[in-house]
Amino acid sequence: MPLVYDPPVFRPPSEADSLILQVTIGCSHNRCTFCAMYRGKRFRTKTDEEIRSDVAEARAQYGANVRKVFLADGDAMCLSFHRLAAILELLNEAFPRLARVGIYANARDILSKTDDDLAALRRGKLKIVYLGLESGDDVTLAAVNKGVTVAEMVTAGTRARAAGLATSVMVLVGLAGVARSLVHARLSAEAINAMGASYTALLTYTPVDGTPLFGAIEHGAFAVPSPRESLVEIREFVSAVTIDTYFTCNHASNYLPLVGRLPRARTEMLACLDAALAGSIPLKPEFLRGL
Ligand code: SF4
Question: Where are the domains of the chain?
């Protein structure tokens, strides 16, 4: 039976060359007011039999030399430690040259595992978790119904790092609206600092029709920062990051691409942002932005 995906399937840009294996369908939370990624999917976990069949089919289709695998969908880390360990064992058997497995995780998915569990998953070659912090501001997290607190995010990120996992942490520019834009930027940088994120990715909030936050915008209850206000927010964030982290702000949703290691590249990044704010560097036009 061919490897069948239940669309839509999302993966981080850095997993573009990975084999995608759907071990869960949808997102177990699925209630963030800004997110439409899995709204059309009823959450479920795939059965052991389905996963075994998918791995066997992937091996038949792609051969034994697969080196990178990404476990989808939205928060595949919600599977129990025993199920995740069994999946990693299957993957290591099917692909002897496997180098790394990546996964999307919610903070609570990580917090539900012990330190020993996380270390064992790391030994099974789970090497990177992608964590949607979205904001380091508890007011914003509560407003968008993220379902976790900043403290939980920080603990989850810190524990993952302590277990030897790399963490790629996403922050959504504009998610706090105009009113809390700079607070959101400062507190998000503080959360990144506190959890020691290996990678930090800034994406820019883009309203999606059909989501509660889109409705709030239409009713005038939420004001999305302008492109210029977004740059000021990013400037505040970049200024406040103090840890060594690989920073990317080059997602299709961003108005101005920035990539580099912070804090080393801070001066250049701030100069670039200032030039854009002064009008010397053009911003990406709206029609070229993507989610
Ligand atoms: S942002 Fe993440 S946790 Fe929230 S609904 Fe979307 S996929 Fe689920």
Answer: 13-288
**Nearest-CA residue for atom 4 of ligand 1:** 32
Number of residues that this document lists for the chain:
291
- Contact (Cβ atoms closer than 8 angstroms) between residue 102 and residue 125: no
Pocket test for ligand 1, best of 11, 24, 35 (most atoms within 8 A of CB): 35
pLDDT tens sequence across 240-286: 999 999 999 988 899 999 999 999 999 999 999 999 999 999 998 88
Tokens of 187: 């507190």
**Span from the CA of 254 to the centroid of ligand 1 (angstroms):** 19
pLDDT of residue 1: 58
Mean pLDDT estimate for the chain: 96
13-288 topology per CATH: TIM Barrel (3.20.20)
CA of 211 to the centre of ligand 1 (A): 12
Rounded to an integer, what distance in angstroms lies between the CA atom of residue 49 and that of residue 41? Answer: 21
**How many angstroms does the Cα of residue 134 sit away from the middle of ligand 1?**
10
| CB-defined site of ligand 1, < 6 Å | 27, 29-30, 32, 35, 37-38, 74, 106, 132
Q: Residue 169: count other Cβ atoms within 10 Å of its Cβ.
A: 26
Centre of ligand 1 to C-alpha 236, Å, is: 25
Nearest-CA residue for ligand 1 atom 7 is 74
pTM of the model: 0.96
